[in-house]
Design brief:
The chain is mainly α. It has one domain: ABC transporter involved in vitamin B12 uptake, BtuC (Orthogonal Bundle). Helix content is about 70%, strand content about 5%. The chain contains eleven helices and four strands; from the N terminus they run ββααααββααααααα. β1 and β2 form a beta hairpin. It is globular.
Length: about 300
């Protein structure tokens, strides 16, 4: 067994891998939240439910329709994003001018409703979703065994997060979107359909949760409470990175996953609270978050 300074390298790198995988999902979910809040000022408490919906949609597509993982990875985020568009148009838009607390309570109620409905239909026990054949197996590294599917999760998450950051921060579309949320009347005067941009942005942020749900299905049990277990952690990560900071959500999500993995190895008792401890420290030292800007 390889050791260094009394540290079991197999165990350490194994926990780092677990932390990086968790961090990949944290990054995707917190990125969706940061987009929706930072650009639209909507506190979407249904993001965890959309993640769960994505996993269930992939499971049902495979078992009822014969749609494989790769096709589900394309279709399910589009379907979940479409559900988000309907939610924004029919439920959130009518209260858009009210206090942010109303949208928070509304989306929280939607999350509870979806979780209860899926629990009633499918039960509370988890269901398995097979790893696609092309991503089965793994690679033997000097200090650990790297499952191929776990490596795919990390790579796919980084690519999707990086592409989203580039689109919002570096393209004309992203500039229109940022300008539209800051001064909607001015952008409409230039012929930009701001309400449509808002709706599509909300759908895109929710679609990221659906994408994460499809990738999570072969790793975790597909169950109605899988989203609620992550939601509070993801909100803490968004606060640490800075509410509305796109890059902060990505970097903090990956970083907190690694911190959580290291804590599980060195002090397992604190692994479930370390992210919240970091949040408290960051809020005391920098209330706007690590990458946020003071209002």
């Amino acid at each position: 067994m390889a050791t260094f300074l009394g540290i079991n390298l197999f165990g350490l790198f194994g926990q780092l891998l677990v932390g990086l995988i968790n961090g990949s999902f944290y990054a995707l979910l917190s990125l969706g939240l940061a987009i929706i809040f930072g650009l639209l000022k909507i506190i979407n408490f249904a993001q965890g439910a959309m993640y769960m919906l994505g996993a269930f949609a992939a499971w049902m597509a495979l078992n009822y329709l014969g749609i494989n993982y790769w096709l589900a990875l394309i279709l399910v985020p589009l379907a979940v994003g479409a559900a988000g568009i309907l939610m924004e148009r029919l439920l959130i838009r009518p209260i858009a001018k009210e206090d942010h607390l109303y949208s928070l309570l509304l989306t929280f109620g939607i999350a509870l409703m979806l979780q209860g409905m899926f629990t009633h239909v499918f039960g509370s026990s988890g269901m398995a979703y097979a790893i696609p054949e092309a991503l089965q197996g793994g690679i033997k590294l000097p200090f650990m065994y790297l499952p191929t599917y776990r490596a795919w999760i990390v790579v796919a998450s980084i690519l999707v997060c990086g592409a989203t950051w580039w689109m919002i921060e570096k393209t004309r579309l992203g500039a229109y979107l940022r300008a539209g949320t800051e001064n909607a009347q001015l952008m409409q005067a230039f012929g930009i359909n701001v309400p449509l941009m808002v709706t599509l942005t909300f759908g895109f942020g929710v679609g990221l949760a659906g994408f994460a749900g499809v990738m999570a299905a072969p790793v975790y049990s597909v169950s109605p409470d899988m989203g609620s277990n992550l939601l509070i952690i993801v909100f803490a990560i968004v606060v640490i990175g800075g509410m509305g900071s796109i890059g902060g959500a990505i970097l903090t999500g990956l970083g907190m996953g690694i911190v959580e993995g290291l804590t599980k190895y060195f002090y397992p008792e604190a692994s479930s609270t370390v992210i919240f401890l970091v949040m408290v420290i960051v809020l005391l030292l920098k209330p706007a978050g690590l990458f946020g800007k003071e209002a």
